[in-house]
Every structure is written in structure tokens, then in C-alpha cells.
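Researcher: Next entry in the queue.
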Amino acid sequence: MAADRRKRATIREVAQATGLSPAAVSYALRGIQTSEETQERVRAAAAELGYEAHPIARALASGRTGMVGLLCGSLEDYWQQSLAVGIGRALLARDRYALLVDAGGDPDRELALARRLRDQRVDGLIVQPLDPAAALWSELAEALPVVSIGDALHGDRAQGEVVFDNRRGVTLALEHLAALGHRRVAVFTPTRASTPDRPADVHVNAEAERLGLRAEAVVAPQSLAEATAVATEVLSAAGRPSAVFCFSDVIAYGVYAATRALGLDVPGDVAVCGYDNHPMSALLTPPLTTVDWDIDGIVRSAVRLVVDVIDGEPRERRVVREPTLLVRASTGGVLP
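Model: Structure for this entry, 336 residues:
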């Protein structure tokens, strides 16, 4: 060991430097029961002394692990990858750490992983649910703070929700396609037969009927290879649709790959619309028309909700994200 390596400063030394009790210093470092001025003074002294709270001691003292479970529906979906990166970084900025798990598009696996995160005593759980209707969510919400992204959870027991106005998002996309003259639209959705009542899918049927569209739902996994295979089958069949509306941009990328393999033109032979505005979507040839939900706003809202509940200071429970349709050349009628 180097002779000049500094010994880890203790909380008592921070207390002596600030003239506060060790308990008051502990509260200030956790941002509770003290004024902002005191918290800033304590943090400055701790930084100057090189004080770092030992994670195990902190967990024992507070009853918290500092970990927030982040349960993703499928990390094969590029948008969910971006969401996970954003949430992980935002939690880190709030002195928390994300414990990331991937349901791989399987609702049963999602529920099993949710139970495992609870058993590992995470301080809270953020989930973008594959099966928002599962009864387990009410049970979990009794044991730890749960914040959902996208859809509200069964039982209305989640402590926080960042929900999408899916009716509006679906309406924007289908009205756009109908205005361009499309009457037969394939709707590629990752929803499986085991979870047929997801709000966005339900809205498709209602809006298609209102607009006089023939909308055919097709299950397409959020995997580029699998989405490409599904799109190839649909687009090579007789009477192919003139437009495809995808509930994930990565599924739309699979449609692009299929059109190129089949020698079809986008949008000349088939128009393509996505649903989450991944940054790559603007770089495609042609650029992808898609529904934007403001991923940065989603990250900020979800992290704020879960941290506030963990700290016992909830200020709001429900945030509704409104969509914007970004019309690009993949549906025709506009320049790239």
C-alpha cells in the first residue's frame, strides 16, 4: 500500500468539520430532515474530506439498497435500449443504480423477473409492461414502489405511471395513412395472444373502423431478424397491404429489410410508419415516418416518480405523454 494513500474519512469527521451531530450529517447526506443549505454545507465538507458512504453500511442504516429494478419488455427493441440507457444514467445522477433485466418479449418471463427483483429487495421498480393486465402488479405495489411506463397497471395500485396517450398516437398514424388513400393496412404488433387487451391494439380496431380502413393485426417480435421474416411473409403474399403500421421502429426496420429483399419500393409499393422515433429512424433511406413520445421526457418523469416515492415525498402520480407524428418520406408526400 502506498504510504501517502489517504484513510477513508468517517462521518464523525464530517460532523466535526460542520459542527453537526453524526445523525444530522447522515440525514443531510441523504437529503432528508434538513434544510437545503445544511445539505449543501455537509456535501461540500464531505467532498473536501473525501468522505464516501460505505454502501453496505448505508443499506443497513437506511433499509435501502440504492438499487432500482428496471424491467424491460425486450432489449432487442432499440428504443427500449435507449430508454434503459437514459434511465440508468438519470438514476446514477440521483445516487441510485439500475438493476437491469430483460423479459425478452415473454409475459411469463416478465412476471417471474418482477418477483425476483422484489425478492432482491430493490428500493423500487420501473417497468414497461408486456402484460399490464397481470394481477401480480397489484401484489408487487404493496411491497415496493412501482412505476410503469407506457400503460397503466392492473388494479390501479402503481405508485407512479408515465402513460402514453395511445389512442391519440394510433389516431395520428391511421389518419395520416387514410388521408394518403390507403385502405388496407397491416398493423405489426409485438403483442402476443396471451395479452390481447393492450390499449394501443384495442384503439387500432376502433380507429380503423371509424376511418373505413381494413386493418389486419400481425404479431411481429421486437427483433430485427424475426420482424424481417414476418414482414417478408406478409408482403410476399397475394393482395399485400399498401401500408404497414408498426408498433415499434425496430419492427419497421424489419419491414424495410423485407421490401429490399422482395424488390419493393418504400413508399411506392408499400408505405411504412413506426411508433417510437428511435434516432436511427431519421437516417434511413427513406427516413421513417413515426410517432414520437419524447424519450428524454419519459426518462425524467419515470425517474422523478420512483425516486420521490422511495424518499417518501411523492408530488404526483400520473404523467401523460402526448404524441407527435413526424411525417417523413417513408409514407410519401414529403421530402426526406
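Model: The first strand starts at residue 67 and ends at 72.
Researcher: Noted, moving on.
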